[in-house]
Every structure is written in structure tokens, then in C-alpha cells.
Amino acid sequence: MITHKTKYRVIYGDTDKMGIAYHANYLRWFEMGRSELFRHIGFTYKEIEEKGIFLPVSEVYCKFLLPARYDDVLIIETSIDNSVKGGMKFNYNIFNESGKKILVTGHTKHAFVNSDGRVVRPPDFLTDLLKNIL
Fold first, then answer.
1. Domains in the chain and their CATH numbers?
2. Is 0.70 surpassed by the pTM of this model?
3. Cβ-contact 10, 26 below 8 angstroms
């Protein structure tokens, strides 16, 4: 399994009036984790899109366990779930800085589409890269 960890500090603009991270920001943090995981394995989203492949989100799941608060440092752990064959699935755990408390778990599923918006098979350049890493 391919896993990558990204650090992020919660800024004031991420929080509500109570100083707790607004729930929709977790989807942004999932995206940060995904982008950094791709960068870690040798591709950026920009490079994938330049090859005419796009990965729109088709499903999101997020389970909130503990709140993140202003100025907390988060560890966004992102992994690729190899069980999905037609698209991609990423699993996420967001921890506090010490890594001892899980704040959120979740996943996103993505289809592969071409520049016309048509669903396509996973591209060889990406499947070959993932096979080599695994």
C-alpha cells in the first residue's frame, strides 16, 4: 500500500466562531493529502491533466471523531486503496500532531475521464507507475 503523510496547520480562516475547524475544510485537506501523495510518487495533478486525464471525485466519505482547532498541526495520512479497479480510491486519516489521536477518517473515489469528460480506463502511465511502486 502506498501511504504518504502531509502536515498542515489549521489557520483562523479554517475555523468557525467557536474556533473549531469547519467540516467542509476536511475535504480540502483530503485533496492536499492526495496531491502530495501524487507528488511523492512522481506525478503532480498538473502533469496528469497535461496528459489528458482527469480524476473527478465520484464519492466522498468522512467520519468526524474529534475536532481540529485553530493553530492545531494536523497530519494528513493518505493511502491508495488497491481494491478499486476502474478508478482510484484514496483512504485518509487525519491525526493530531503527535499522531496519537485520529480526528477524522474517510475516503474519496475518483473516475478517470478524458478531456471530453468521457470515462476511460486507468491510463497505462499511472498503472505502470503504481505497479512499480507496489
1. 3-133 (3.10.129.10)
2. yes
3. no
